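Quick one: structure tokens for this chain, please?
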Amino acid sequence: MLLLAGFLSIFLGLLALTVDRPLAHFIYDHVSGRAHKALDSVTHYAKAGHWLAAAILALIVAAAMRHFGLFAAQVVQLINYSFAFIVSLVVGSAILHIIKLVLGRRRPRDDMEMGLYGFMPLAFNPDYNSFPSGHALTICCVAVIFTCVWPMAWAVWFAVAALLAVTRALLTAHFLSDVLIGAGIGLIAAREVLLLGFPGFSPGWF
């Protein structure tokens, strides 16, 4: 099911390429300064650095708990899920950054403010780094891991992930297709890492 969701997100992202530019211009013209400020205050919750630091901290806490012989079963889970997230993020980010460098796409604001738009394949120019969205990838990896830990609240985790991912498009930091494809890569990467590298640590419906 999660694999299907990932590929569906990528497919919708490819379809969104046809409406990306007018949609981005519409958002740029209609999102107020106050709304922009509010969106900007929450979008960073999807930033990879924050979650990577949290995973490393969780590993440190788990090591201390293991040293003192505390909560053995919980320590195993904490270690496995922390490592699973880190590996998911590394694998997904590697794929994402290869796509960014190979396809090369300017961000929406470059179009609005400098008249620079479109893809530049094989340019390997770091200024062309919009496609896909790293924030969307990261927060979808987080949602997958949280679903493993608290499966009954899976709808909450994915709803929050979707909302945070969409903030990237609403801030015109990314086109909608960037967000959808980044999210799809994150879902697939996290699922495959869990099923192949951490068997038994994910729900059966993955």
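Residues 2-197 form one domain.
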